[in-house]
């Protein structure tokens, strides 16, 4: 598996893979910088020099629709004997970076050159996702929205939103796990959708089946469906196809895209409109939206309001999707490595006692929990030089023999949140959410393999779905609360923590 798979285009402009927070996704870190290389518009001598490629690379027209393209890039890099390679896919040239050194050199040291992006025609033009910050070309609009994001979600905001994270963990996630669900992925998605919805908009959240959370789920599902459509790749290669009317025979892809676009519009506009209504009434909870619009004349600053709407929707949708991948991977890892779960719970009991849930202030006293979080994120890093035995889940690789964190081992967060000017600005908030979730679940529950509908014990399978943000294939679990006192604490928190 590729260690640090990054792809970019010959003029340095990124092709977005949907979101910056997506770099937390556990399948791999893949930032795609793919530029349209129109062979007819340049003379051969006028083209930029390309890195090495395989002799047959120009025939790889289907490379962009490979289920796991980063594996191809990694294999090609080995065959070419270099960590920077190129491949021709019809009218596109793909350049893949296969080492941390190459990624850092290109995306950080030369960020002024390689921070731009080319937009997907299908996702951005046809389906309407061109407003997402990570889809925007590098320019004034991108800088404005990036500044807005950073101002309200800077590292210090993790402390501001930390209590909100704990409230949602204790008031939404743990109570649902106490009910003994057979599958945890839907529970995780509801919890994270509610949390990011609250951070973005501050509107009331239902602990189950929240309609606004469902809007985000539908919108993101549209992205995943588009990624599986053969026509998506045709439209991206031949942009004129975006003008094909939906009523044309054989244009079912266009009708689907219009349906998916309507889901995106609902997700972006409905919760924002509700938040504005609450703000105007004077009855609202603090949120990104309330902080950003308070100083504005909402009628005079239409452009600013649109920017706030876009950034709020990105936090809401993208944050929930990427964190869901990470936390689902954590649950799967506990099934595969029950000994890791046992060690973590021994540390929790030693530091917290048997009947207390953790807080973010406990972080420095729980190094094994931190090591688990880092190992979950390391699922995207398989460089054997940095991480021996990379396919095994080993939190101990981040610890000294005496159990202290080994800070000489690279923290995967350095890579998981992207590089250069496009790096995720919500890193600290995401890490805090991840840590308090892992610590709280392990303090409260024993996670074991699930059973089939006929009662047969099931073994966990480490298998992931393809996509920009890769998620585990759905799996079953058995959740057992660790004591009746912990169950009481969870029930009390559910009643106390109004979401």
How would you describe what is shown here?
- With 499 residues, this protein is an alpha/beta fold.
- The chain has 16 helices and 9 strands.
- Strands 1, 3, 4, 5 and 6 form a 5-stranded mixed beta sheet that branches. Strands 2-7 form a two-stranded parallel sheet.
- Helix 11 packs across helix 13.
- The protein is globular, with a radius of gyration of 23 Å.
Layout of helices and strands:
Blueprint: E1 6-8, E2 13-14, E3 31-32, E4 35-36, H1 69-80, E5 84-89, E6 92-97, H2 100-109, E7 116-117, H3 121-126, H4 140-152, H5 157-178, H6 185-201, H7 211-228, H8 230-237, H9 252-281, H10 288-293, H11 302-336, H12 338-352, H13 367-377, H14 413-416, H15 427-444, E8 445-449, E9 477-481, H16 484-496
Parallel strand pairs: 1-3, 2-7
Antiparallel strand pairs: 1-6, 4-6, 5-6, 8-9
Helix pairs in contact: 4-11, 5-6, 5-15, 5-16, 6-7, 6-11, 7-9, 7-11, 9-11, 11-12, 11-13, 11-15, 13-15
- CA gyration radius, whole angstroms: 23 Å
SS field, number of helical segments: 16
The unreliable regions are 1-45
Mean pLDDT: 83
Separation of termini?
Answer: 41 Å
Main sheet record: 5 strands, mixed
The percentage of residues in β strands lies in 5-15%
Order of helices and strands: EEEEHEEHEHHHHHHHHHHHHHEEH
Structural class: alpha/beta
Principal-axis shape: globular
* Amount of helix: 40-55%
Instruction: Write down how many β-strands occur, each being a DSSP E stretch of 2 or more residues.
Output: 9
Offer a quick outline of the entry.
This protein has 499 residues and is α/β, with parallel strands linked by helices. Helix content is 48%, strand content 7%. It has helices spanning 69-80, 100-109, 121-126, 140-152, 157-178, 185-201, 211-228, 230-237, 252-281, 288-293, 302-336, 338-352, 367-377, 413-416, 427-444, 484-496; strands at 6-8, 13-14, 31-32, 35-36, 84-89, 92-97, 116-117, 445-449, 477-481.
